[in-house]
Sequence to fold (368 residues):
Amino acid sequence: MISKGEEMRALEEEDVAEGKTERFEDEVARHQVMVGIDLGTCRTVVMSDKGDKLLIRSVVGYPKDIISRQMVGEGPLFGAEALEKRNFLDLCFPLAEGVVREASERDYRAARELVRHVVDLVRNGTDVEVCGIIGVPARASVMNKELLLKVAREMMTKTLVVSEPFMVAYALTRLNKCIVIDIGAGTVDICCMKGSVPAPEDQVTTFKGGDYIDERLEAAIARRYPGVQVTKSVACAIKEEHAFVGEPEQPVEVTLRAEGKPARFDVTREIRTVCESIVPDILEQVETLITSFDPEDQEDALKNIILAGGGSRIRGLDRMIADRLQEYGEVQVTCVDNPEYVGAIGALKLAKEVPPAHWAQIGLMFGG
Fold:
């Protein structure tokens, strides 16, 4: 049986001999899908050059026992379906701080099945080859990147890993005199763009992202209202709807249960406090990175700060960062319009515009 790769090589040799390179390129395009993947701690987003636009929660569920399997099948289940049927399942969140967890074989298996699931969705029942670019935290270690490539190798023919804030900058064509602050669930990535692929010293990763806010908000509500039933997922839902910094526009009241009974509780102070708790670290890193620009570029860079990631939806955060940096001169902070998708958009754009033969000049890859 002739493999897909052998078929492509045979076509190439035939076309070169006949001078018909266009035919070969058309065949390659027909048998290949290019993707950009933002593999996030909370959500995984995939964009393809065939028009796919996928967003799923980064969770994998396995049936607990024989009764569960009768109800939901052998599994595994993914994303929203897994969360909806969570009582039947053991849930696994295989990504932590933006990379594959290394705690156990179970985490690695779940990460592999999550990547396989999204790649299968892109294939849509066909046998096309899938290749593309996956985003990782700005300062992910070589070991983290190699583990991710090991996961992807089983499903994809070529894969490159690049930093997530670089993908954002590429999507927006903000590749010079720019600072990207990408606030995800597991990490906050801050990156200086200076007209080329950012070097390690141009990027910083901290770990006070959305998950950190959720944990602190859960603890703060439980501390103020003893007896109230609050979980991390409840706190996350409150944050996603009401997160803000600075002076509140109005009090934030939410319905929670105490001893099984619903009641209204004011959580304005708690939300403000935990959301503002991530600001000092962001400011410290921006202040350090701004000095890495040439002196004549620093003024422009301060006017070109981009907020991305789910945390960019925290109301007032752009204004607070700009206000706290006033001593450096005029500062302009802009929030991206589509924080969920912009990273994957940038990854796909990069994959389409830079030939795979040159990917190794950008980052770690396999299948060159």
